Every structure is written in structure tokens, then in C-alpha cells.
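Researcher: We're teaching a course module on how sequence relates to structure. For the next exercise, students receive a sequence and then see the predicted structure as C-alpha cells, so they can try to spot secondary structure elements on their own. Here is the exercise chain.
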Amino acid sequence: MHPSRRRILGLSLGGVVAAGIGSHLPAAASVAGEESSGRGGEKALATSDREWSVRSRIRPPRFPVRWFPITAHGATPENATAGIARAIRACHESGGGHVVVPPGVWHTGVINLLSNVDLHLKEGATLRFSTDPADYPVVRTRWQSIEVYNYSSLIRAEGQTDIAITGAGTLDGAGDNQHWWYWIGSGQYGWQPGMPNQRADWGELERMNNEQVPVDQRVFGAGHYLRPSFIQPFRCTNVLIEGVTVLNSPMWTIHPLECRNVTVSGVTIDNLGPNGDGCNPESCTDVLIRDCTFTTHDDCIAIKSGRDADGRRLGLPSRGIIVEDCTFVSGGAAVAVGSEMSGGVEDVWVRRLHMPPDPAADEAWMQWVLCVKSTSTRGGYVRNINVHDVDSRAWMYRPLEITFSYQGGGDQSLFPDVRDIRFDRVRVARAERAYRMVGAESVRIRSVAITNSRFDMVAAEAVVQYADDVTIRNVWIGDTQVG
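Model: And here is the predicted structure for the students to work with:
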């Protein structure tokens, strides 16, 4: 990570909040005493019984105190793949424990986690993943939220219970303009005419989705160019990812898929590649993302639930998502809902987010604090999204945006049902617009509240169209109180 970014991360929570809340706004709800008071403090900060119910169900897994060093199972720095697999198998068969990666750089291919196993990286340990697609077998997954058989993620678990990736070490996906990223077909990421790219495969997969071709006939992998994600627990229960630094994913970085009870805590994600989202819980229930730092070129956190026909067929929503105390250095949305959300998203609580300026850059940037993005082909619903206590020193495109025209075409009648969005105690230094909400004449956005917030320097007027029951209260844009 760039040294200046490390300095940013050294900012204390109290210092950031104190600098960000102006005299026109009420004091932020979070105070040091509440934050340090453990679960009692968390309950005091909970906005509803529904949120507290979600919190009460999120519990990280526990593991027996047994240690399985990968070196004891034949791992070498030059080729650790088989040794890691043997250590994971031994740990699993003994009833669980910790598979330990010692300091050093360890080259590996795919890693498959098994139940009751914590993959633990010691400080100074780096797992550097192969960039050879042949090292990643074809498995059932989703690509851009469409069901498909494609390359395995770099770290994968399917149908497992009580799994973890922890420690102070580094996971390096080795994505760059020479490996993985150029598959997108953009010169920005190293692609040149004559080189392979994903365009034909992506078009074919979209056709298969629209026509609902059986999933077992949607086979890609070798000879195709759909990049894998980095970490994907699939249909798992009780998942913990904690403490590690994750760099340079081929595509989405952390992608829990159809999981229940997921905690992502204290993780640093640095991924400036294409579609390099930070953490994308998809069709998951009960997820906590806290104390994480994101430096991305795409959305930092994107909550998803399937795309178009697949998402509506599966009907697997994401619900019970809590995001708190995270820092966003760069990216698209701090938190996005969609655009692939055809299975529905509900019950999301987002609080105490920080977007500090980057002293090494001319201008730090984030596009949105919250972006609810959909199209006329998605369907689905978005309900009960709560964002409060946000401080942004970065330039921002639109702190809040709700749009039904993000991408796509085709059927113009499948707009989502979007309602009950709350945006409270948000301070933004500079923005193109304070907010933009545009529904559709046939399906209107309903019940949005922006309260107790300030947008210091704004270039253009806020926009509200095709939206009912919009509340603007104690909101300042520049020196003008607009509600």
C-alpha cells in the first residue's frame, strides 16, 4: 500500500468525526464511550429491534486450539499448493483448528477451505497466487451475478461450516495489466488489438441468462475469458475473514455467495483493477463488515442478489447487512445496492463511514456514499436501507443516488420496488450534487428521508423525480438550509 494511504488509516475515529460535523448539525450519535462498551454499546447504537436481531445472530466461528503449519505438510515457498491442501485436509479430519502460513512469500494455486478450518497468515506471510488459468478448475459459481460454470475463485469453499481466513499477512492475487486484468478488453488495463478479451463470453452469458438456458449448459473456463473472483465462500455458514490485506484481485475481491452469518473485520483491500470491487455479499443473510479499509477503482462494498432472469428465478435476497466504522480511500460507491439485485435487498444498516483526503493526490475521490442502482430489466426490491454518521473530506459525485437507468435495456416494465431509504447525519465537503433520486413514471421511489446533513460545496442542484414521500429536514447545501 502507498505510504500516504497508511498515514490516512492512522486517523483516529474521534478525530475524523470532530473535524467533519459542523455547527449546523447535531452531534454525531457515536461517542467514544459507546464504541468501547462492547455489545452493550452496540445495542445502544442500534436503530431498531430488527437491527439488534440481526446483530444477535452474527457470531464468528470458533476453532479448536490446534495448529497445522503448512511447512509440516510439504509446502515450499516455490510451490505451496499441495502442502496447503494437505494441511487443510489434516486440520479438517482432526476436528478443526488453524492452518498456519509462516512469514515469507508462498506461491500457490487454488485453495479450497473445509469445515472447521481457519487459514491463518502470520505477520510477514504472503500467499501469492498463480496467474495461470489452468490452476483454477471449473466450478459452479456466479459471474456478474449470473449462474455459470467458470474458473474457481482463488480461495473457495462450497457448502462448508465454520471457516475463516485470519491473521496479519497478505493475500496477493497478482492481477495486473499483464495478468487477468487485460481480459476486460480495455487499453487502460493493458489490452491491445489482437489480444483475447471477455466481450464475446459476457455477451453469450447474458444471452443464456435472458433465455434461461439450463445452468449445466453454461460452461466457460478454458478457452474463455471471464475472470475469477478472489475469495468466494459459496453456500457456507459461519464465515470469518479478519485482519488480512488483500491485493490485486482478478475481479471482485471478497464475494460471499448464498452464505449465512458472515463477518468481514479489519481487512484492508487494495484493488485498482477492472471490476475490482472490495466486498460483494450476494444473496447472503446476516453479514457484518466492520473496521475495513478500501482502496478500489470500482465499488468498495456492493450488495447483490442475482441479475435479471436468474435473480428473479432464484429469489434469494441479501438481507441483514451491517456496515460500520470503515474507511474508503477511493472507489465508486462506499456502499452500492446492485446493480445486480433482482432477488431483492432489505434491512441494511450503514454507519460511521470515513472518506479522508489523500495527501498524496491532487484530489481524493469517491463517487457515492450510497448508490441504489437498477434498470428496467432487474425487477426485485430494495427496502429499509439506513445510512448515518458519515464524514467525507473527499470529492464526491453524488453522495446519495437512486437510479432506475444504470444499465441495460430490453423489457421496460421490470423496475424494482425501492422504498424506505434513510440518510442521516452525513457531512460531505465537495460534491457535484447533494443527491439525485430518479424513479420511473410507472414505478416510483417511495419514502426517502435525508436529515441532519450538510453538503458544503455543491456544483449543481439536487434532483428528485418520480419519487413520493421524500423528506428533507435540517439539511444544508452550502450556506442555505433547504429543509
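Model: If you want an answer key for the exercise: The helical segments are 3-9, 13-20, 32-35, 38-45, 49-57, 81-93, 199-211, 308-314. The radius of gyration is 22 Å.
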